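Q&A log
Question type: sequence-to-structure
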Amino acid sequence: MPHILLIDDNAQFREVVGLRLKKEGFEVTDVGSGQEGLAAAGAGSFDLILLDMLMPEKDGIATYQELKASPATRHIPVILLTAAAVEGHWEVLPYETDGPAFVMGKPYDSQMLLARIRQILVGS
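Response status: OK
Response body:
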């Protein structure tokens, strides 16, 4: 069962997305900050990370950069979710390192997100 780390400061969002992912057969660990996400990613074994871009203290870009700087986590694909993009927007980040990273706008289409998650996990 693929294991997804969900990092978002909005507890309600984590609950809704986590339940949806679990219903689709994924194991989900969720945390509420970039710092907690870095700790969880370093201590666990994850197949994919869903990461909110706009969080207080350590935002998604800073968290992403630290994930990609660490040999223990740089291989994990990351989907950055943000309300700062157009709804349904999807692009590959231009500054990839050892693993793919993508940006998807919030609110998002859950079927599209699930399709992208499956595409990444099958393709990785």
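Response note: The longest strand covers residues 3-7.
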